[in-house]
Design a protein that fits this description.
about 270 residues; alpha+beta; Enolase-like, domain 1; about 25% helix; globular; oxidoreductase activity; Carbon monoxide dehydrogenase; FAD binding
């Protein structure tokens, strides 16, 4: 879609040259959402392409993903065989959309868009990821994935700030993964996403929840929980009125199907 209201297109070589950030400015990465609909409030697009933040780094501490990493690149990367946790990232790509989107869309863009049905957000929460945030005129800061999104299309990012990279610890990458998603078949709209991570050494279980709630949530257990324990944890940590109620599904149904998916995921471990 043509954005006729855009007055200026910037393509800086580095972050430090971006000055005088104002209302109506927006960072541009893959652009699969920005150009999919009208953006009446935008006047300036600042393209991140020249920053070359598309790296994938495999280190002794874990995995680092640059915010502008194209999803297809992440999906095709050759990771260490014992890193079973990357299956959550692969599924996040596969469940998103067609190859036309995943060949352009970026990992950071999906996270920063902050829609409830994000395929990456619950995976990052389950993997205990951390986000590094940069500002042209300030020191970097770090935020846990579970604390990044504050509402529907709302994040902790302040004006001018940008997601630089995502870090996933080595330990989480060796956990076993189950990725469960239920959507409306006719429209492909997810009503619940459950990403479960299981540590076979300690029996610890971490659930990342998405689509059923406005922001990704984490529910953790020190052991493989029973169905009753799952229900009790949901009631205690994700209140009934936290679940989304809209045309796609009621809050009660979303809560029920989330509980079903959590239990179903445990059967894979």
């Amino acid at each position: 879609m043509d954005l006729h209201n855009i007055q200026t297109y910037l393509r800086p070589q580095n972050l430090e040259t971006v000055v005088n950030w104002s209302q109506g400015w927006s960072w541009l990465a893959g652009g699969t959402w920005v150009f999919s609909q009208s953006q009446p409030d935008l006047r300036v697009l600042v393209d991140l392409e020249k920053f070359d933040w598309s790296e994938i780094e495999v280190t002794t501490e874990g995995l680092v993903i640059g915010a502008t990493c194209i999803m297809t690149k992440l999906r095709q990367w050759n990771f260490p065989e014992h890193w079973t946790g990357v299956k959550a990232l692969f599924r996040a790509v596969d469940e998103l959309a067609s190859f036309k989107v995943t060949n352009m869309a970026t990992v950071g863009g999906n996270i920063c868009l902050a829609i409830p049905a994000s395929t990456f957000a619950p995976a990052m929460v389950a993997l205990d990821a951390k986000y590094e945030i940069w500002h042209p005129q300030a020191a970097p800061r770090f935020v846990a994935a579970k604390d990044f999104q504050t509402g529907v299309q709302q994040t902790v990012l302040q004006p001018g700030e940008v997601l630089r990279r995502i870090s996933i610890p080595q330990e989480s990458l060796t956990w076993h993964i189950s990725y469960q998603r239920v959507c409306i078949a006719t429209a492909g709209i997810a009503i619940s996403i459950v990403v479960a991570a299981y540590n076979p050494q300690t029996s610890q279980v971490r659930f990342g929840l998405g689509a059923c709630v406005p922001t990704p949530r984490v529910v953790e257990f020190s052991h493989i929980p029973t169905l009753d324990e799952i229900g009790e944890a949901l009631n205690a940590q994700v209140l009934s009125n936290d679940f989304i109620e809209d045309y796609a599904a009621s809050a009660a149904y979303r809560q029920h199907i989330t509980k079903v998916l959590m239990r179903r995921s445990l059967l894979e471990f």
